[in-house]
């Protein structure tokens, strides 16, 4: 079964699986924010730094298992494989979208 995702989210996961920082960052609005591992990143510079550090450290790929729309939010459950204890693991990604771009992403277990 094919999962239809908004373009920005589909492009984010495609870029993430290729570890392409520029392509991942391009899916975010300039004023976007991210919450991951208990930390908040705001704006393109902080989000890029987070992407560079986590990509180099974990080298993850994500296989989407489930999606659910809730208003302007998209909840994605993914099987995440990479260089971390307990890999693979199920993680939840909550995207908030505006005008075709990601304005907020929260990642958690």
UniProtKB/TrEMBL annotation:
It holds the Pfam family SnoaL_2. Residues 9-104 form the SnoaL-like domain. It comes from the Bacteria. Coiled coil: none annotated. This is Nuclear transport factor 2 family protein. It comes from Ferirhizobium litorale.
């Amino acid at each position: 079964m094919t999962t239809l995702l908004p373009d920005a989210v589909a492009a984010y996961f495609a870029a993430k699986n290729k570890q392409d920082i520029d392509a991942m960052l391009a899916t975010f609005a300039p004023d976007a924010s991210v919450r991951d591992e208990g930390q908040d990143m705001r704006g393109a510079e902080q989000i890029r730094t987070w992407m560079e550090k986590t990509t180099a450290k974990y080298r993850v790929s994500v296989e989407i298992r489930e999606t659910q729309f809730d208003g302007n939010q998209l909840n994605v459950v993914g099987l995440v494989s990479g260089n971390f204890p307990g890999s693979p693991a199920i993680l939840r990604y909550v995207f908030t979208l505006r005008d075709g771009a990601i304005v907020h992403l929260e990642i958690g277990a």
